[in-house]
Amino acid sequence: MIQRSVHLRNLIQSSSIGSLSKLRTCKFFTSQAAAASLPQVCEPSVYSDEEYADIDWNNLGFGLMPTDYMYTMKCTQDDNFEQGQLSPYGNIELSPSAGVLNYAQGLFEGTKAYRREDGRLFLFRPDQNAIRMQIGAERMCMPSPTVEQFVDAVKQTALANRRWIPPPGKGSLYIRPLLMGSGPILGLAPAPEYTFLIYASAVGNYFKEGLAPLSLYVEDESHRASRGGAGGVKTIANYAPVLKALTRARNRGFSDVLYLDSVNKKNIEEASSCNIFIVKGNVLSTPATNGTILEGVTRKSIIGVARDLGYQVEERSISVEELMDGDEVFCTGTAVGVAPVGSITYQNKRVEYKMSAHPMCRELYSTLVGIQTGLIEDKRGWIVDIN
Ligand code: COI
């Protein structure tokens, strides 16, 4: 018990959460409008001082592995988020008429915490997730946390769950910030109250293929996004509609689905869970983000790394025929990382990539990992040390 209190005090001092008493206060919402109750904020009973959680670190996949704490912060009509707090990971209470449940007024983000060989813990560009959430919130008519509030909350969540950050090389702690219309609403309108919540899970490779090349299926019946829609932001509303095509493709043995633009039905956009790049000669190309494609943080980082290495990078329209004629193809995303594509199937035609060794993909990936692990100097300030 004493050990737990000491740890909790250290945790609080190492972040800007404020006073220890805040964490120990059980907080209840009495207002009827407060339809989504914050979990009771008490000193958690699950805390352990061990360096690592007792799990098999050699077999992490991308399944949910709940950790010790989550973070919650609420905002009512005045558009300001109040002081957030950590609490034990657990279920939340929502009104059946919450905006997020009825009208999908919600966004999510994904970012990761890593452990270096020297034991130091760090985040990768969490400010970019914060900015993307703000842009998405504006599109979905929601207030959003400031960049500072967002990054601070991610730091607190990572530190509180530090025993779930895998040993170096075994994976990472995937951190999932959510922003949702949690207040009750019946007629179609923005919700009267919002909840920002972060939970985390220890993860390894996203695809069951591990690091082996992916097989993608090009979908020509349904589309992921349309012009003027919300495909460019990370709203939860973009993900359920792809499940049908994704499930069908997975049942046929494919790793993921690649979507085409909904106007011409000939240009590639992105896959269900990641962005896509094509290499031809010394040129790296990726579909331009024009409102239908998500501005991935890994996408942006790979473009920066490639330009630094002297490659020509083009953001433009890419036809499916051009894709199939590429030398290399690879996918990028926070969950996915940088994943080489081994084959693409489109209208019963399958191509396998000539450069099965994926030299440019490997170079870009190892440069990015080098920056993350400290082997390569982080000249851009992408790494946020959270020790
Ligand atoms: C991420 O890369 O963080 C995502 O949100 C993709 C998701 C489908 C797992």
From TrEMBL:
Entry-linked Pfam families: Aminotran_4 (PF01063)
InterPro entries: Aminotrans_IV, Aminotrans_IV_CS, Aminotransferase-like, B_amino_transII, BCAT-like_C, BCAT-like_N, BCAT_family
TM ranges: none
GO cellular component: cytoplasm
Chain coiled-coil ranges: none
Keywords per UniProt: Amino-acid biosynthesis, Aminotransferase, Branched-chain amino acid biosynthesis, Pyridoxal phosphate, Transferase
Keyword ATP-binding: no
Top-level division of the source organism's lineage: Eukaryota
EC number: 2.6.1.42
Protein name: Branched-chain-amino-acid aminotransferase
